[in-house]
Amino acid sequence: MAQESLLVSTFYLLVFTAILITYRVVRGPTLPDRIVGLNTITTKVVMIIAIVSVIRKEYYLIDLAIVLLMVNAVGGLILAKYLERRAVHD
């Protein structure tokens, strides 16, 4: 019971901090700031999915979280390569 309440508290903390980071994604000031903010939010969503899967005992959701984490990593690499090429051409 205590472990579940700790997980629920962690869930709410992650949701709250993801909402706070949304400000950085929307306001910037630079494109790299927005990309880092988006990657951070996606990582928090992965943790939220993992916590929900443990609370509800639906462990197949962890597979979904792992796939989302891989997509996040590949997307971050693609955006970094795009920014690198854009900096060379400017």
Q: How helix-rich are the residues, as a percent range?
A: over 70%
**Number of helical elements:** 3
How can the largest sheet be summarized? none
Instruction: Compute the separation of the termini in Å.
Output: 57 Å
In total, the number of strands is 0
Radius of gyration: 16 Å
Order of helices and strands: HHH
Instruction: State mean pLDDT (0 to 100 scale).
Output: 91
Alpha-beta classification: mainly alpha
Strand content: under 5%
Which spans have pLDDT < 50 for at least 5 consecutive residues?
Answer: none
List the helices and strands and how they pair.
Layout: H1 2-27, H2 31-56, H3 60-89
Task: Describe what you observe in this structure.
With 90 residues, the protein is mainly alpha-helical. The chain has one domain. 91% of the residues lie in helices and 0% in strands. The protein has helices at residues 2-27, 31-56, 60-89. The radius of gyration is 16 Å and the shape is elongated. The protein starts with a helix and ends with a helix. 3% of the residues are buried. The chain crosses the membrane at residues 6-23, 35-55, 61-80.
How would you summarize this macromolecular structure in one to three sentences?
The protein has 90 residues and is mostly helical. It is built from 3 helices and no strands. Helix 1 runs antiparallel to helix 2 and helix 2 packs antiparallel against helix 3.
Question: Which characteristics define this entry?
Answer:
90 residues; mainly alpha; elongated; cell membrane; sodium:proton antiporter activity; Multiple resistance and pH regulation protein F (MrpF / PhaF)
